[in-house]
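Q: I have 263 residues here and want to know how they pack in 3D. Can you give me a structure?
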Amino acid sequence: MSIRVSVIIPAAGSSRRYGMDKLGQDLGGRALLLRTVELFTKRDEVRSIIVAGPPDDLDAFRDRFGAQLGFHGVQIVAGGRVERWETVKNALAAVPDDATHVAVHDAARPGASDELIGRVFEAAQVHAAVIPGLAVADTLKRVSEEAVRAEAEDAVADLILGESAEAATSKGRFVQSTVDRAHLVAVQTPQVFEIGLLRRAYAQADLAGVTDDAALIERLGEKVLVVDGEFRNLKITVPNDLALMRTMLGMKSPEGRPVHKRF
């Protein structure tokens, strides 16, 4: 079975944890957002790409990215103002009628390999909901909700930190339990769904707090297939993530490239 995929890229977030506009950051001479879009532009299965930008700043978003995105035939629509699900739902309304599947991919995941995307698309030919995931390798702890402040005793702080003893305070949370990591995976994108199933999922009431499209499929009682993800498909959340991504992709930081090769 041949699938016709419409790709939705939610790009309406505020980049609050990054501290600035992360989607416009330089990644090998092009904006991070453009690098993400380019993951899909040469895939035969992809028939359309929809980028959902910030609704209250959409004109500026178009000014910044519109020309480059337009070169790839990308449609820009307004995303949601508060939660991610609003953005995906808005973009879903723009999916063309001839699409058989929708792939939702985080705008800040520019490192997904063509092999990973192919693996997900191939599985989507026989399964209605497919997501990539990585087995959890670290020990997981459930901790207290509220942070507490830990202060070193003066004598110990003086011994260890000297003049910086006054700064010897840190916030932490107490461990409540250790979580069994057996059969746990860290979920990634692109997540691919048969279009009728995804529309039915987004027609459900009370979507507040949903951060993962597959969770809505699970609510319907439908099965979601997990295929192998990959470490390089990390989501850029803080500046150190971008530095790591540049290293994995073999790209220099802007300061390490000639001026005429910076965008």
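Q: Anything worth noting?
A: The chain has two domains: 5-136+184-261, 140-179. Residues 108 and 236 are 5 Å apart (CA to CA).
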